Amino acid sequence: MARVADAMAILEEWAWPSWALSWDRVGLQLGDPSQPLTRILVALEATEGAVEEALAFGASLMVVHHPLFFRPFNSLSPARPLGRKITRLLQSGIALYVAHTNLDAAPQGVSWALAQKLGLEGGEVLVPHGEETFLKLVVYVPRGYEDVLLKALGDEGAGVIGRYSHCSFQAPGHGTFLPMEGTRPFLGEVGKLERADEIRLETIVPVRDARRLVEVARKVHPYEEMAYDLYPLVEPRRVHGFGWLVDLEEPRPLGPWLEEMATLFGPGIRLFGDPQRKVKRVALWGGAASDGWPAAVEKGADLLICGELSYHHRVEAREEGLMVVELGHRESELPILPYVADRLREGLKDQGLAVRVFSEREGFAWGAWASTQ
Predict the structure, then answer these.
(1) For residue 133, pLDDT beyond 90
(2) CATH hierarchy code of domain 4-102+334-371
(3) What pLDDT does 188 receive?
Protein backbone atom coordinates (compact mmCIF):
# COMPACT_ATOMS: atom_id res chain seq x y z
CA MET A 1 0.00 0.00 0.00
CA ALA A 2 1.22 3.47 -0.86
CA ARG A 3 1.99 5.92 1.93
CA VAL A 4 2.29 9.70 2.00
CA ALA A 5 6.03 9.21 2.51
CA ASP A 6 6.27 7.57 -0.94
CA ALA A 7 4.99 10.73 -2.63
CA MET A 8 7.25 12.90 -0.46
CA ALA A 9 10.31 10.90 -1.51
CA ILE A 10 9.52 11.39 -5.21
CA LEU A 11 9.11 15.14 -4.80
CA GLU A 12 12.21 15.52 -2.63
CA GLU A 13 14.42 13.69 -5.12
CA TRP A 14 13.46 16.42 -7.58
CA ALA A 15 13.15 19.51 -5.35
CA TRP A 16 15.34 19.09 -2.29
CA PRO A 17 13.85 20.84 0.78
CA SER A 18 17.35 22.20 1.52
CA TRP A 19 17.12 24.26 -1.67
CA ALA A 20 14.29 26.36 -0.20
CA LEU A 21 15.22 29.90 0.82
CA SER A 22 15.78 30.49 4.54
CA TRP A 23 12.50 32.38 5.05
CA ASP A 24 10.38 29.73 3.35
CA ARG A 25 8.17 27.00 4.84
CA VAL A 26 8.25 23.77 2.87
CA GLY A 27 7.65 20.08 3.45
CA LEU A 28 4.80 18.22 5.15
CA GLN A 29 2.70 20.85 6.92
CA LEU A 30 -0.21 18.61 7.91
CA GLY A 31 -0.57 14.86 8.26
CA ASP A 32 1.47 11.75 8.96
CA PRO A 33 4.05 10.41 6.45
CA SER A 34 2.94 6.85 7.26
CA GLN A 35 -0.74 7.37 6.48
CA PRO A 36 -2.20 5.47 3.48
CA LEU A 37 -2.20 7.22 0.11
CA THR A 38 -4.81 6.58 -2.57
CA ARG A 39 -5.41 9.91 -4.34
CA ILE A 40 -3.43 13.13 -4.66
CA LEU A 41 -4.62 16.59 -5.65
CA VAL A 42 -1.91 18.92 -7.00
CA ALA A 43 -2.81 22.60 -6.70
CA LEU A 44 -1.14 25.97 -6.60
CA GLU A 45 -2.41 26.70 -3.11
CA ALA A 46 -4.80 25.37 -0.49
CA THR A 47 -7.68 27.75 -1.09
CA GLU A 48 -11.04 26.86 0.45
CA GLY A 49 -12.20 25.85 -3.01
CA ALA A 50 -9.18 23.58 -3.46
CA VAL A 51 -9.77 21.93 -0.08
CA GLU A 52 -13.39 21.25 -0.98
CA GLU A 53 -12.30 19.77 -4.31
CA ALA A 54 -9.80 17.53 -2.51
CA LEU A 55 -12.64 16.29 -0.34
CA ALA A 56 -14.85 15.70 -3.36
CA PHE A 57 -12.08 13.70 -5.09
CA GLY A 58 -11.40 11.64 -1.99
CA ALA A 59 -7.79 12.83 -1.89
CA SER A 60 -5.58 11.67 0.95
CA LEU A 61 -2.83 14.18 0.08
CA MET A 62 -2.72 17.71 -1.29
CA VAL A 63 0.54 18.86 -2.89
CA VAL A 64 0.67 22.65 -3.20
CA HIS A 65 3.20 25.28 -4.23
CA HIS A 66 2.27 28.07 -1.81
CA PRO A 67 2.61 27.29 1.93
CA LEU A 68 -0.52 27.17 4.06
CA PHE A 69 1.53 27.94 7.18
CA PHE A 70 3.74 30.88 6.29
CA ARG A 71 3.28 33.69 8.81
CA PRO A 72 2.66 33.36 12.57
CA PHE A 73 -1.00 33.20 13.59
CA ASN A 74 -2.75 33.53 16.93
CA SER A 75 -5.98 31.70 16.29
CA LEU A 76 -7.35 28.71 14.37
CA SER A 77 -10.96 29.68 14.77
CA PRO A 78 -13.25 28.10 12.13
CA ALA A 79 -14.76 31.57 11.82
CA ARG A 80 -11.71 32.50 9.74
CA PRO A 81 -10.64 30.95 6.40
CA LEU A 82 -7.32 29.57 7.69
CA GLY A 83 -9.01 27.91 10.64
CA ARG A 84 -11.74 26.46 8.46
CA LYS A 85 -9.26 24.97 6.00
CA ILE A 86 -7.06 23.41 8.67
CA THR A 87 -10.10 22.00 10.47
CA ARG A 88 -11.46 20.47 7.26
CA LEU A 89 -8.12 18.93 6.35
CA LEU A 90 -7.52 17.47 9.81
CA GLN A 91 -11.05 16.14 10.19
CA SER A 92 -10.87 14.48 6.77
CA GLY A 93 -7.37 13.05 7.25
CA ILE A 94 -5.93 14.89 4.23
CA ALA A 95 -2.20 15.51 4.46
CA LEU A 96 -0.71 18.71 3.00
CA TYR A 97 2.74 18.91 1.43
CA VAL A 98 4.41 22.15 0.23
CA ALA A 99 7.10 22.52 -2.44
CA HIS A 100 7.70 26.27 -2.81
CA THR A 101 11.07 27.96 -3.41
CA ASN A 102 12.74 24.54 -3.54
CA LEU A 103 10.51 23.81 -6.55
CA ASP A 104 11.42 27.22 -8.01
CA ALA A 105 15.10 26.26 -7.70
CA ALA A 106 14.79 22.64 -8.86
CA PRO A 107 15.97 21.47 -12.29
CA GLN A 108 12.94 21.77 -14.60
CA GLY A 109 11.22 23.88 -11.97
CA VAL A 110 8.66 26.67 -12.07
CA SER A 111 10.37 29.11 -14.47
CA TRP A 112 11.46 26.28 -16.79
CA ALA A 113 7.83 25.11 -16.95
CA LEU A 114 6.78 28.65 -17.88
CA ALA A 115 9.29 28.57 -20.77
CA GLN A 116 7.82 25.26 -21.95
CA LYS A 117 4.33 26.75 -21.90
CA LEU A 118 5.60 29.50 -24.17
CA GLY A 119 7.26 26.97 -26.50
CA LEU A 120 10.78 28.17 -25.68
CA GLU A 121 13.42 25.45 -26.00
CA GLY A 122 16.85 25.26 -24.45
CA GLY A 123 18.02 27.86 -21.98
CA GLU A 124 19.85 28.04 -18.67
CA VAL A 125 19.32 29.07 -15.06
CA LEU A 126 19.09 32.83 -14.61
CA VAL A 127 20.20 33.05 -10.95
CA PRO A 128 22.27 30.01 -9.87
CA HIS A 129 21.52 28.74 -6.37
CA GLY A 130 23.92 25.81 -6.28
CA GLU A 131 25.63 23.11 -8.28
CA GLU A 132 24.73 19.45 -8.35
CA THR A 133 27.83 17.27 -8.22
CA PHE A 134 28.15 13.87 -9.83
CA LEU A 135 29.86 10.55 -9.27
CA LYS A 136 30.96 7.99 -11.81
CA LEU A 137 29.28 4.66 -11.13
CA VAL A 138 31.08 1.60 -12.49
CA VAL A 139 29.34 -1.78 -12.38
CA TYR A 140 30.81 -5.09 -13.52
CA VAL A 141 28.14 -7.25 -15.11
CA PRO A 142 28.28 -10.60 -17.00
CA ARG A 143 28.21 -10.22 -20.76
CA GLY A 144 24.64 -10.27 -22.04
CA TYR A 145 23.19 -8.36 -19.07
CA GLU A 146 24.71 -4.95 -19.79
CA ASP A 147 21.66 -3.65 -21.70
CA VAL A 148 19.30 -4.69 -18.91
CA LEU A 149 21.47 -2.88 -16.37
CA LEU A 150 21.84 0.25 -18.50
CA LYS A 151 18.08 0.49 -19.07
CA ALA A 152 17.31 0.10 -15.38
CA LEU A 153 19.82 2.77 -14.37
CA GLY A 154 18.97 5.14 -17.24
CA ASP A 155 15.24 4.90 -16.59
CA GLU A 156 15.90 6.02 -13.01
CA GLY A 157 17.99 9.07 -13.93
CA ALA A 158 21.57 7.81 -14.32
CA GLY A 159 23.66 8.77 -17.33
CA VAL A 160 22.13 12.18 -18.08
CA ILE A 161 24.53 14.50 -19.95
CA GLY A 162 22.90 17.65 -21.28
CA ARG A 163 19.83 16.60 -23.25
CA TYR A 164 20.99 13.00 -23.58
CA SER A 165 19.98 10.19 -21.23
CA HIS A 166 21.19 6.59 -20.74
CA CYS A 167 24.79 7.66 -21.49
CA SER A 168 27.42 5.04 -20.68
CA PHE A 169 30.79 3.61 -21.65
CA GLN A 170 31.24 -0.14 -21.84
CA ALA A 171 34.43 -2.20 -22.07
CA PRO A 172 34.91 -5.98 -22.04
CA GLY A 173 37.10 -7.81 -19.57
CA HIS A 174 37.33 -10.79 -17.28
CA GLY A 175 36.28 -11.12 -13.68
CA THR A 176 37.46 -13.83 -11.30
CA PHE A 177 35.82 -15.19 -8.17
CA LEU A 178 35.78 -18.34 -6.08
CA PRO A 179 32.36 -19.20 -4.61
CA MET A 180 32.72 -20.33 -0.98
CA GLU A 181 30.50 -22.63 1.05
CA GLY A 182 26.97 -21.29 1.51
CA THR A 183 26.89 -19.30 -1.74
CA ARG A 184 24.57 -19.82 -4.70
CA PRO A 185 26.68 -18.57 -7.62
CA PHE A 186 25.06 -17.41 -10.84
CA LEU A 187 28.15 -18.74 -12.65
CA GLY A 188 30.64 -21.39 -11.65
CA GLU A 189 30.75 -23.93 -8.83
CA VAL A 190 31.37 -23.73 -5.10
CA GLY A 191 35.05 -24.26 -4.37
CA LYS A 192 36.26 -23.64 -7.94
CA LEU A 193 37.90 -20.47 -9.25
CA GLU A 194 35.71 -18.98 -11.99
CA ARG A 195 36.86 -16.69 -14.80
CA ALA A 196 33.86 -14.89 -16.35
CA ASP A 197 33.41 -12.68 -19.41
CA GLU A 198 32.14 -9.39 -18.03
CA ILE A 199 31.37 -5.86 -19.15
CA ARG A 200 32.60 -2.81 -17.25
CA LEU A 201 29.67 -0.39 -17.51
CA GLU A 202 30.39 3.24 -16.58
CA THR A 203 27.83 6.01 -16.18
CA ILE A 204 27.34 9.18 -14.13
CA VAL A 205 24.93 9.63 -11.23
CA PRO A 206 24.04 12.65 -9.08
CA VAL A 207 25.60 12.43 -5.63
CA ARG A 208 22.17 12.74 -4.02
CA ASP A 209 20.87 9.73 -5.99
CA ALA A 210 23.94 7.49 -5.74
CA ARG A 211 22.70 5.24 -2.93
CA ARG A 212 19.32 4.76 -4.59
CA LEU A 213 20.81 4.01 -8.01
CA VAL A 214 23.22 1.44 -6.58
CA GLU A 215 20.17 -0.34 -5.18
CA VAL A 216 18.47 -0.11 -8.59
CA ALA A 217 21.50 -1.86 -10.08
CA ARG A 218 21.46 -4.56 -7.40
CA LYS A 219 17.85 -5.45 -8.20
CA VAL A 220 18.59 -6.31 -11.84
CA HIS A 221 22.14 -7.63 -11.45
CA PRO A 222 22.26 -11.43 -11.70
CA TYR A 223 25.11 -11.96 -9.21
CA GLU A 224 24.58 -12.55 -5.49
CA GLU A 225 27.28 -9.97 -4.79
CA MET A 226 27.53 -7.06 -7.23
CA ALA A 227 30.98 -5.52 -7.76
CA TYR A 228 30.88 -1.76 -8.28
CA ASP A 229 32.89 1.42 -7.79
CA LEU A 230 31.93 5.06 -7.17
CA TYR A 231 34.45 7.74 -8.21
CA PRO A 232 34.14 11.47 -7.42
CA LEU A 233 34.05 13.84 -10.40
CA VAL A 234 35.68 17.23 -9.95
CA GLU A 235 33.60 19.16 -12.47
CA PRO A 236 29.97 19.90 -11.48
CA ARG A 237 27.71 19.41 -14.48
CA ARG A 238 24.32 20.80 -13.51
CA VAL A 239 23.37 24.13 -11.97
CA HIS A 240 20.09 24.60 -10.17
CA GLY A 241 18.59 27.95 -9.26
CA PHE A 242 15.93 30.53 -9.95
CA GLY A 243 14.52 31.90 -13.19
CA TRP A 244 15.32 30.83 -16.74
CA LEU A 245 17.16 32.53 -19.64
CA VAL A 246 16.54 31.68 -23.29
CA ASP A 247 18.07 32.98 -26.51
CA LEU A 248 15.62 32.88 -29.40
CA GLU A 249 16.90 31.57 -32.73
CA GLU A 250 15.90 34.83 -34.42
CA PRO A 251 14.81 38.22 -33.07
CA ARG A 252 11.05 38.14 -32.55
CA PRO A 253 8.59 41.05 -32.84
CA LEU A 254 7.02 41.57 -29.44
CA GLY A 255 3.59 42.78 -30.57
CA PRO A 256 2.37 39.56 -32.26
CA TRP A 257 3.93 37.48 -29.48
CA LEU A 258 1.87 39.36 -26.91
CA GLU A 259 -1.28 38.27 -28.73
CA GLU A 260 -0.13 34.65 -28.46
CA MET A 261 0.55 35.11 -24.75
CA ALA A 262 -2.95 36.50 -24.23
CA THR A 263 -4.33 33.34 -25.82
CA LEU A 264 -2.26 31.16 -23.48
CA PHE A 265 -2.58 33.11 -20.25
CA GLY A 266 -5.69 35.23 -20.59
CA PRO A 267 -6.26 38.86 -21.48
CA GLY A 268 -4.88 40.29 -18.22
CA ILE A 269 -1.23 40.38 -19.29
CA ARG A 270 0.52 43.75 -19.12
CA LEU A 271 3.46 45.05 -21.13
CA PHE A 272 5.84 47.69 -19.85
CA GLY A 273 7.85 48.57 -22.90
CA ASP A 274 7.61 49.12 -26.65
CA PRO A 275 5.53 46.49 -28.53
CA GLN A 276 7.35 47.45 -31.74
CA ARG A 277 10.69 46.23 -30.44
CA LYS A 278 12.12 42.86 -31.35
CA VAL A 279 13.45 40.60 -28.64
CA LYS A 280 16.26 38.05 -28.81
CA ARG A 281 17.17 37.20 -25.21
CA VAL A 282 14.28 36.43 -22.85
CA ALA A 283 14.36 36.02 -19.08
CA LEU A 284 11.52 34.15 -17.36
CA TRP A 285 10.57 34.20 -13.70
CA GLY A 286 7.51 32.43 -12.32
CA GLY A 287 5.84 34.52 -9.60
CA ALA A 288 7.22 37.75 -8.12
CA ALA A 289 10.41 38.79 -9.93
CA SER A 290 11.86 41.34 -7.52
CA ASP A 291 14.97 39.16 -7.15
CA GLY A 292 15.14 38.27 -10.84
CA TRP A 293 15.06 41.49 -12.83
CA PRO A 294 18.59 42.67 -11.86
CA ALA A 295 20.01 39.36 -13.14
CA ALA A 296 17.98 39.74 -16.34
CA VAL A 297 19.58 43.16 -16.87
CA GLU A 298 23.05 41.89 -16.00
CA LYS A 299 22.78 39.03 -18.50
CA GLY A 300 21.59 41.26 -21.33
CA ALA A 301 17.95 40.17 -21.58
CA ASP A 302 15.68 42.27 -23.79
CA LEU A 303 12.50 41.08 -22.07
CA LEU A 304 11.48 39.70 -18.69
CA ILE A 305 8.32 37.57 -18.59
CA CYS A 306 7.17 37.13 -15.01
CA GLY A 307 4.23 36.93 -12.66
CA GLU A 308 4.52 40.46 -11.41
CA LEU A 309 7.01 43.20 -10.56
CA SER A 310 6.57 46.11 -8.17
CA TYR A 311 6.05 49.59 -9.57
CA HIS A 312 9.46 50.87 -8.50
CA HIS A 313 11.26 47.82 -9.85
CA ARG A 314 9.43 48.21 -13.16
CA VAL A 315 10.62 51.79 -13.37
CA GLU A 316 14.21 50.77 -12.66
CA ALA A 317 14.03 47.90 -15.13
CA ARG A 318 12.75 50.13 -17.93
CA GLU A 319 15.48 52.67 -17.22
CA GLU A 320 17.96 49.81 -17.68
CA GLY A 321 16.39 49.01 -21.06
CA LEU A 322 14.59 45.86 -19.90
CA MET A 323 10.99 45.42 -21.05
CA VAL A 324 8.62 43.56 -18.73
CA VAL A 325 5.56 41.43 -19.40
CA GLU A 326 3.45 40.60 -16.35
CA LEU A 327 1.28 37.50 -16.69
CA GLY A 328 -0.09 37.50 -13.14
CA HIS A 329 1.43 35.61 -10.22
CA ARG A 330 -0.94 32.65 -10.40
CA GLU A 331 -0.91 32.46 -14.18
CA SER A 332 2.88 32.35 -14.36
CA GLU A 333 3.12 29.45 -11.89
CA LEU A 334 0.25 27.25 -13.04
CA PRO A 335 2.31 25.60 -15.84
CA ILE A 336 4.36 23.67 -13.25
CA LEU A 337 1.35 21.72 -11.96
CA PRO A 338 1.12 19.12 -14.76
CA TYR A 339 4.84 18.40 -14.33
CA VAL A 340 4.38 17.85 -10.59
CA ALA A 341 1.43 15.55 -11.26
CA ASP A 342 3.37 13.61 -13.91
CA ARG A 343 6.37 13.15 -11.59
CA LEU A 344 4.13 11.75 -8.88
CA ARG A 345 2.08 9.58 -11.22
CA GLU A 346 5.08 8.05 -12.99
CA GLY A 347 7.17 7.65 -9.84
CA LEU A 348 4.41 5.88 -7.94
CA LYS A 349 3.54 3.71 -10.94
CA ASP A 350 7.19 2.65 -11.28
CA GLN A 351 7.03 1.39 -7.70
CA GLY A 352 3.87 -0.57 -8.43
CA LEU A 353 1.77 1.70 -6.22
CA ALA A 354 -1.82 2.38 -7.28
CA VAL A 355 -2.41 6.07 -6.65
CA ARG A 356 -4.55 8.42 -8.72
CA VAL A 357 -3.19 11.93 -9.23
CA PHE A 358 -5.29 14.95 -10.14
CA SER A 359 -4.01 18.36 -11.24
CA GLU A 360 -5.53 21.80 -11.24
CA ARG A 361 -6.68 22.70 -14.74
CA GLU A 362 -4.56 25.30 -16.49
CA GLY A 363 -7.57 27.50 -17.06
CA PHE A 364 -7.56 30.54 -14.86
CA ALA A 365 -10.99 30.44 -13.23
CA TRP A 366 -10.65 29.97 -9.48
CA GLY A 367 -11.83 26.56 -8.38
CA ALA A 368 -11.72 24.99 -11.88
CA TRP A 369 -10.29 21.52 -11.63
CA ALA A 370 -9.86 18.50 -13.87
CA SER A 371 -8.59 14.95 -13.60
CA THR A 372 -5.43 14.27 -15.60
CA GLN A 373 -5.48 10.55 -14.87
Answers:
(1) no
(2) 3.40.1390.30
(3) 86
